[in-house]
Amino acid sequence: MDELRIVVCLKQVPDPEAPVSAYRIDSAAKRVTPIGVPPVLSPFDENALELALRLRERHGGKVTAVSVGSNLSKAVLRKALSAGADELILVEDPAFSPDFLDGYGTVLVLAQTINKLGAPHIILTGRQAADTNAGVVGLFLAEALGIVAVTLARGATIEDGNIRVERVLPDGLEVVIATMPALLTVTQEAGELRNISIKNMRDAKNKPLKHWKAADLGMHVIPDRRLMLEELAAPARERKCLIIEGGSPDEVGKKLALRLRNDNVL
Amino acid sequence: MSECKGVLVVGEKDTVRETLSKATRGVVSVGRRLADGLSEHLSAVFIGDNVKDPAEQSIRCGCDRAYLAEHGSLCEYDPDLYLPVLQKLSEDIKPRVVLAPHTALMQDLFPRLAYRLKTCVVTDCIHVELDDRGAALLMTKPIYGGNALAVYRCSSSPHMATIRTHTGLSAAPAVDNQGEVVRLDVDTDLHFCRMKVTNRIREELNGVKLEEAEVVVSGGRGIGGTDGFEHLRELAMILNGALGASRPPCDLGWVSSLAQVGLTGKMVAPNVYFAVGISGSMQHLTGMYESRCIVAINKDATANIFKFADYGIVGDYRAVLPPFIENMKELLERKV
Fold first, then answer.
1. B309 touches chain A (CB under 8 A)
2. What is the pLDDT of residues A83-126, one digit of tens each?
3. What's the CATH superfamily of A5-217?
4. How far is CA A20 from CA A34, B83, B274, in A?
5. Which of B115, B196, B293 has its CB closest to that of A177?
């Protein structure tokens, strides 16, 4: 096999760990505006990047990070280079804003990008994005490229020209051997992205960062959306909490037990 | 689009009991509601090596027709084998709506199927309904980790959705419904085997299954370590419940990641949910907020979890839990 080529697809999202109060929901504009929440790499995409770097450590090769969108934050996405990716491609165009592109459109752009890069052996995505929580783009991309897809990967190695994937099940784990090229969607069990040092960040400045636009991909027509957002609302689910109080922990514990019993909860 | 008719449920069987899975039953009742609203048929399809029983049960639960793709080669899920069956069926019967429970298998299968049918899919819906004209399916799902609820509509056909399968989704009781079972031809030459499962490790389950438990006792970062979870285990055992956790204890290795409750873990809706040392991040709340009763114990009076709880104790669980367990035990024994 020639040099291993790995592509990791990254999405920039509002920090999912931000407090609830930071999310302002504008139902009229059908938009969520995070207030004072900086964008981050979608956490599952970080897991995917980590798996890519481990594959390269073991088998050699090159890791290319790709992100598609509009208003991409270079500071956020450059983290991929700092963590160890060899190059970063920002596929950025006003036409690629989420107002125009749904999951299907994003996949068409990603597929064009990957075709332009030259067929990789392995493509990695997060299991789902932390904002839309759809879990569709990875599988759509594999279908668009006509390659095999294994979901919920927590680890992978290459054996005899095939990829061996450890896949998380609801009640355990399974090992899947798949042909390459293959796309894996990566789950949090793969582990967190490695720590980044100041030196890593400095070194990343010398790595290639390319900007491609729709025209560079020969995309002159943006596909129609298949998915329409009809409404956006804040979930109403707060409850009235009865705080059990007492002079000592013993008293409080006892009062809670009695209360749950009397209210027929238990 | 107008030629598309009817609702199709892609069903799963309960592999332990060899019956229609509880989650599928819930989706069949959702499908029945939609089909009645449209005055159209409800069908279900089952793929596997032995799926006649669940197919017949789906008819008793309200399906007008159950399709059966039965073959020895289909005993294990392989998308390369399952997709052609579903693609052909969809192209033949042209359903308006295709639904499935949001299980691990369907999360893997449905996006692939949607792509092949040249449509889209909304995953993990908590509600689906028809619009006023009955033409489009409105699909509601939590986004931004549960901070917002989005309602989507799909401009292509069929409209596809996976439905969240918490226990709160009430399954229609089996009635004396009549319907037909239709066997599908399975092309067994299709196998070109691009992937193969070589090993499977199932984690031993002690006690009640998390998703099916009536009581769930969950711990968060505030539990502090492996030892603390022993208290929670004890409480879960006394109440015949299951042990759960928010994401940090799983990431830190204090408990198995299979115990994770939340957006990327298990979705639960038990009668009683104990959240101990859990601050209440949205991604956790999304996985449990439909519980009938929520009890929160946390040192921090300002913790987000108290906004979502019915009963709360502000205090150290190490001090509060032992007397609570002691008294609860006594009260439960008195009942018998």
1. yes
2. 999 999 999 999 999 888 999 999 999 999 999 999 999 999 99
3. HUPs (3.40.50.620)
4. 9, 40, 21
5. B196
